[in-house]
UniProtKB/TrEMBL annotation:
<feature type="compositionally biased region" description="Polar residues">
    <location>
        <begin position="42"/>
        <end position="54"/>
    </location>
</feature>
<feature type="transmembrane region" description="Helical">
    <location>
        <begin position="630"/>
        <end position="650"/>
    </location>
</feature>
<feature type="transmembrane region" description="Helical">
    <location>
        <begin position="270"/>
        <end position="289"/>
    </location>
</feature>
<feature type="compositionally biased region" description="Low complexity">
    <location>
        <begin position="19"/>
        <end position="31"/>
    </location>
</feature>
<protein>
    <submittedName>
        <fullName>Nucleobase-ascorbate transporter 12</fullName>
    </submittedName>
</protein>
<feature type="transmembrane region" description="Helical">
    <location>
        <begin position="207"/>
        <end position="228"/>
    </location>
</feature>
<feature type="compositionally biased region" description="Basic and acidic residues">
    <location>
        <begin position="90"/>
        <end position="99"/>
    </location>
</feature>
<feature type="transmembrane region" description="Helical">
    <location>
        <begin position="544"/>
        <end position="563"/>
    </location>
</feature>
<feature type="transmembrane region" description="Helical">
    <location>
        <begin position="182"/>
        <end position="201"/>
    </location>
</feature>
<feature type="transmembrane region" description="Helical">
    <location>
        <begin position="296"/>
        <end position="314"/>
    </location>
</feature>
<feature type="transmembrane region" description="Helical">
    <location>
        <begin position="517"/>
        <end position="538"/>
    </location>
</feature>
<feature type="transmembrane region" description="Helical">
    <location>
        <begin position="320"/>
        <end position="341"/>
    </location>
</feature>
<keyword id="KW-0472">Membrane</keyword>
<keyword id="KW-0812">Transmembrane</keyword>
<dbReference type="GO" id="GO:0016020">
    <property type="term" value="C:membrane"/>
</dbReference>
<dbReference type="InterPro" id="IPR006043">
    <property type="entry name" value="NCS2"/>
</dbReference>
<feature type="region of interest" description="Disordered">
    <location>
        <begin position="1"/>
        <end position="118"/>
    </location>
</feature>
Length: 696
């Protein structure tokens, strides 16, 4: 054995001999054993206690210079993000100060390497304590470094989180934080109904009823997910992943010439498509096929796919906002000021401007528009804002009809016409209608939705849980999201329900990861859904303000998608090319399909901002099977589908190391069962857990 005294150290390496068996050690994470602190895949929270007892595998000294993500071996040189990582030199310097306490076999089995693990741990821990950590207050990214490993070897409380997954600080704090959590995600919950219901020809009353239904289903499905799904504090709601296919179905050729109540007819078609697509997603999760799909889903795939979802609506955002540019621009400027310039301003120890940027900006803009309306700024002599544009004869009134309709805040009667009490019930719009071509489109979209949720599961678990979930827990969560979307289809929300991508940003900003807070907020949301005036109030938000909020929300969604690259080597030429190709062609290929067969003089049957969703009537694919034409033209016009296909093919065929790709590291079931903290995080409630085999 090598002596800890440098003066007595032999001049040349001595052949390696096995160390005597030591007492059994408690289960611990490899992050504690080695001090490995990466930023690319969240392995800080993953343990692999079997590595200690595994027989040594011969490797060359060069192999020791590269990291092994499964064994957590430290390496020399800069990390993927440019920061130095600890390795052998710090251990050599610290051997005199930290004599070995317990000797183990070197994990790489090199007979010429006889370093002791404990001094390496001590040196890395000391270096990590001296290394300055960037202040994460108010930042939504890179919150993976500040973790604490307790004496039992488990990763304990993240120092930047106020409350973690199983914390229950009391009824009042839980209520306040739960309300804060949902209010910060208000835009993601209510904006989709404000887009699709008017597109279906629905009235303000229809919009209010759909919003109430969305609030009700969001509360119910969130409770189901935190109890029987992944059990992470993730709010469920209508996802923007489903918005593009919903608009494509709404603008299908067979619906353009409908007379009568278009809203109910198209809603029943949407319900049927959502139910079939969600049943496929549930099968994907509960059958175990999702665990196979997880092998090809990595940050380089998730990042461009989710970014493409946000970028795909660029043709809708500002063109709608431009109908009353002074109100819409004011809304965007306020939200940007609150979320960026005032993000570090605290009131009663709360970053109110950062957390409530969207509702604060909406309230101020709405109040300003109300004052301008009451002051008569948008009054024009002889013109009535309530007269349909088709009935206006005066050229003077026709010139100002857009400003009267979109700048005024008194054109909606949704609040006045809404009842005080309304109970959302299943099949409220009628019996769903099923068509295989629309259902097939939704089945493909459900896969994209699952990819989105996988990224959210991984990122949120690094913030609030002791370790990432197992593949079985991820698959279970995807299966429950499928069941939740089936319920959403039966109740008639117009879109499927899934984990909202904005969850990760909200958890990082509010520092609230308590499961109980999210559950209490879900209960409050269910109660509010019974108050019809709440839906009516939200439905009365002027369309220009909705468009401004959508611009900010879609930009955030794009940024959150790209932020997944922090788990990989973002500076790698391999990853840069894959992401760049995926994003570029996700914009260019759909543009080809959307513009095919349309000349400048073509009279479109829909507004220009809905033009990308009428591809089924003029796409380039023409076969003798009309249904196949519809499916292929529609799917290939979706930006997210092209981004996903290119990214998943390139990332899984182009050679690259696990570190370079940032491969997601999920917990192994057997190792997770040995750690009580992991079992408590992800196990199903007692009686249900016995039936479904816990966390595996």
């Amino acid at each position: 054995m090598a002596s800890s005294d440098p003066s007595k150290r032999p001049p040349r390496p001595v052949p390696w001999t096995p160390a005597p068996e030591s007492a059994a050690m408690p289960p611990s994470s490899w992050a504690k054993r080695t001090g490995f602190r990466p930023k690319f895949s969240g392995e800080t929270n993953v343990s692999n206690s079997d590595q200690i007892k595994s027989p040594p595998q011969p490797k060359s000294r060069e192999a020791d210079m590269t990291p092994d993500l499964e064994a957590g071996r430290p390496r020399l040189g800069p990390s993927s993000n440019g920061e130095p990582t600890s390795g052998r030199p710090p251990a050599e310097k610290e051997k005199e100060k930290n004599p070995p306490v317990k000797k183990r076999r070197d994990s790489n089995g090199n007979k010429n390497s006889r370093e002791n693990v404990q001094p390496v741990m001590a040196a890395i821990a000391e270096e990590g304590s001296r290394r300055p950590v960037r202040n994460l207050e108010g930042d939504a990214v890179d919150v993976l470094q500040r973790t604490v490993v307790d004496d039992d070897g488990f990763v304990s409380r993240h120092t930047n989180m106020k409350y973690e997954l199983r914390d229950t600080p009391g009824l009042v704090p839980i209520g306040l934080y739960g309300f804060q959590h949902y209010l910060s995600m208000l835009g993601s919950l209510i904006l989709i109904p404000l887009v699709i219901v008017p597109a279906m020809g629905g009235t303000y009353e229809d919009t209010a009823n759909v919003i109430s239904t969305v609030l009700f289903m969001s509360g119910v499905t969130t409770l189901l997910h935190t109890s029987l799904g992944s059990r992470l504090p993730l709010i469920q709601g209508p996802s923007f992943v489903y918005l593009a296919p919903a608009l494509a179905i709404i603008n299908s050729p067979e619906f353009l010439g409908l007379n009568g109540n278009n809203f109910k007819h198209i809603m029943k078609e949407l319900q049927g498509a959502v139910i079939i697509g969600s049943a496929f997603q549930a099968f994907l999760g509960y059958s175990g096929l999702m665990t196979i799909l997880l092998r090809v889903i990595n940050p380089v795939v998730v990042s461009p796919t989710i970014a493409a979802v946000g970028l795909s609506f660029y043709s809708y955002g500002f063109p709608r906002l431009g109908a009353c540019v002074e109100i819409g621009a004011m809304q965007i400027v306020l939200v940007v000021i609150f979320s960026l310039y005032l993000r570090k301003v605290s009131v009663l120890d709360h970053r109110v401007f950062l957390i409530y940027a969207v509702p604060l900006g909406l309230a101020i803009t709405w109040g300003t528009a109300f004052l301008l309306t009451e002051a008569g700024v948008y009054n024009y002599k002889g013109c009535d804002a309530n007269v349909p544009p088709s009935n206006i004869i005066s050229d003077h009134c026709r010139k100002h009809v857009s400003r009267m309709k979109y700048c005024r805040v008194d054109t909606s009667n949704a609040l006045r016409s809404s009842p005080w009490f309304r109970f959302p019930y299943p099949l409220q719009w009628g019996t769903p209608v099923f068509h295989w071509k629309m259902a097939l489109v939704m089945c493909v979209v459900s896969i994209i939705s699952s990819v989105d949720s996988v990224g959210s599961y991984h990122a949120s678990s690094l913030l609030v849980a002791s370790r990432p979930p197992t593949r079985g827990v991820v698959s279970r969560g995807i299966g429950l999201e499928g069941l939740s979307s089936i319920l959403a289809g039966l109740w008639g929300t117009g879109t499927g329900f899934t984990t909202l991508t904005e969850n990760v940003h909200t958890i990082a900003v509010t520092k609230m990861g308590s499961r109980r807070a999210v559950e209490l907020g879900a209960c409050v949301l269910i109660i509010l859904s019974f108050v019809g005036k709440v839906g009516g109030f939200i439905a009365s938000i002027p369309e220009v303000m909705v468009a401004a909020l959508l611009c900010f929300t879609w930009a955030m969604l794009t940024a959150l998608g790209l932020s997944n690259l922090r788990y990989s080597e973002a500076g790698s030429s391999r990853n840069i090319i894959i992401v760049g190709l995926s994003l570029f062609f996700s914009l260019s290929i759909p543009a080809y399909f959307q513009q095919y067969g349309i000349s400048p003089n073509t009279n479109l049957s829909v507004p220009s901002y809905f033009q990308p969703y009428i591809v089924a009537s003029h796409g380039p694919i023409h076969t003798k099977f009309g249904g196949l034409n519809y499916v292929l033209n529609t799917l290939l016009s979706f930006h997210m589908v092209i981004a996903f296909l290119l990214a998943v093919i390139l990332d899984n065929t182009v050679p690259g190391s696990r570190q370079e790709r940032g491969v997601y590291v999920w917990s192994e079931p057997e190792a997770a069962k040995r750690e009580p903290a992991v079992c408590k995080d992800y196990e199903l409630p007692y009686r249900v857990g016995r039936v479904f085999n816990g966390i595996s």
